[in-house]
Write a structure and sequence with these properties.
It is a single chain. It contains 10 helices and no strands. The protein is mainly α. The protein has one domain. α1 packs antiparallel against α2.
């Protein structure tokens, strides 16, 4: 996690000389590492290394592209013969029914629950749920979560720049580790419930 934090901060920091390269670097990082990029960019923006008018839209675009890629990956998996047979299989019937009953809310909520984005968005594509509902829900979730996390990181970094200095990166790392372990816990709980329902 620390290596990824350093990699992203260096990649974005090294692109600061060109607004286009900077924006592309943020989009690329945000499409793969959403929360990590938001925190890194928030700290860099607080240090006046990245203009906010470049940071905010680039993060949103990157997250949106990453979400669309996950949905598309699910749709692509559906075309694979060995995976496509699970679309109507009893094995996934309960998951599909659960998602169908609360589809928009589940997709929207996945933005806020670490570890739930990948399975929720790929399942949306795999089960061929409406893309229009998917994209509107992810845009809504991204607007709320990205605005909150980026703003919190930016203001915290701005207010503590004189007191903490470089230690802010350590605090950012702790926050990221916390999000990682929450995501890991959520994934383990999901797997345990799935195994229990499969056994019944």
């Amino acid at each position: 996690m620390t290596h990824m934090l350093l990699f992203i901060s260096h990649l974005i920091g090294d692109s600061a000389g060109s607004m286009l390269l900077l924006s592309l670097a943020i989009v690329l990082c945000a499409s793969v590492f959403e929360d990590l990029t938001m925190i890194v960019v928030g700290v860099l923006a607080a240090d006046d290394l990245i203009p906010i008018f470049i940071a905010f839209p680039s993060i949103y675009v990157g997250i949106l592209l990453g979400d669309i890629a996950l949905y598309s990956l699910g749709r692509l998996a559906r075309t694979h013969p060995k995976l496509a047979r699970y679309v109507e299989h009893d094995f996934v019937a309960s998951l599909r029914a659960w998602l169908e009953n609360r589809y928009a809310l589940t997709v929207f909520s996945a933005s806020f629950i670490p570890g739930s984005r990948v399975p929720t968005y790929t399942a949306s594509g795999f089960f061929k749920f409406p893309f229009s509902t998917f994209i509107l829900s992810t845009i809504g979730g991204a607007l709320v979560w990205t605005t909150f996390l980026f703003s919190a990181t930016y203001w915290f970094s701005s207010l503590t720049a004189r007191w903490l200095g470089p230690a802010r990166w350590g605090i950012a790392g702790v926050l990221l580790l916390t999000l990682f372990f929450i995501g890991r816990h959520n994934l383990l709980v999901y797997r345990a419930k799935k195994e229990k329902s499969d056994a019944l």
